[in-house]
Amino acid sequence: MREDRQNNEIREIKITPNYLDHPDGSVLIECGNTKVICTVMIENKVPLFLRGKNKGWLSCEYSMLPGSTPTRKVRDISRGKLDGRSSEISRLIGRSLRACIDLDKIGERTIWIDCDVISADGGTRTTSITGSYIALEIAIKKYLKDKKIEENPLICKVGAISVGKVGGINLVDLDFKEDSNADVDLNVVMNDNFEIIEIQGTGERDTFSIDELNKFLEDAKVGISDIFKYYEIVEDYI
């Protein structure tokens, strides 16, 4: 049993919109002690495979700053290659956000999402997805206001949460200590119709049944529903 919150309770979220001056959209999102800066910048060009098709693209880059963990996280540039985990999470965030936008409505533009973890205490990828959606909404509303695009391309909201089983107990929104000791660990991405965009799940130390999977998904739905409540607060700042 947790001491600071209920087993099905998410950590307190703090969202600071327009955290940086230069991006089209930006937020600092804090989920407990996990803190991520999410930015959106829109370029008037697309990858070669989309040129001439009047269609846009969305891509993401994710990284953890050296001081985000108890021991220094070596920068990818020092390794001479992209960290495999960073690459995998970048693709996850990109897929998640492409599910919420009609890229035919933005013209030949590329939406770049950058997620930089400045403090990691579990759930950095799910926090990045949530923060990225909010930053994306800020950027799109600015483009609509400035008449750079004619029609809102956003088709749904997106949120993400981790769920799992630790010591035989189901938990929502795992911090690092819980995640590192999890028997089962899942990351779930949903839209605001609570349709599943992506599930990443594994039996770290144990297997789990289909019935247990369904329970994890129900827990995730409740957690993501709570996350969406924070979006309503942010609307006033966009």
Automatic annotation (TrEMBL):
Q: What class of enzyme is it?
A: transferase
**Keywords carried by this UniProt record:** Nucleotidyltransferase, RNA-binding, rRNA processing, Transferase, tRNA processing, tRNA-binding
Give residue ranges for domain Exoribonuclease phosphorolytic: 9-139, 158-220
Give the family from UniProt. Answer: Belongs to the RNase PH family.
Q: How does it assemble?
A: Homohexameric ring arranged as a trimer of dimers.
State the protein's purpose.
Phosphorolytic 3'-5' exoribonuclease that plays an important role in tRNA 3'-end maturation. Removes nucleotide residues following the 3'-CCA terminus of tRNAs; can also add nucleotides to the ends of RNA molecules by using nucleoside diphosphates as substrates, but this may not be physiologically important. Probably plays a role in initiation of 16S rRNA degradation (leading to ribosome degradation) during starvation.
Q: What is this protein's record name?
A: Ribonuclease PH
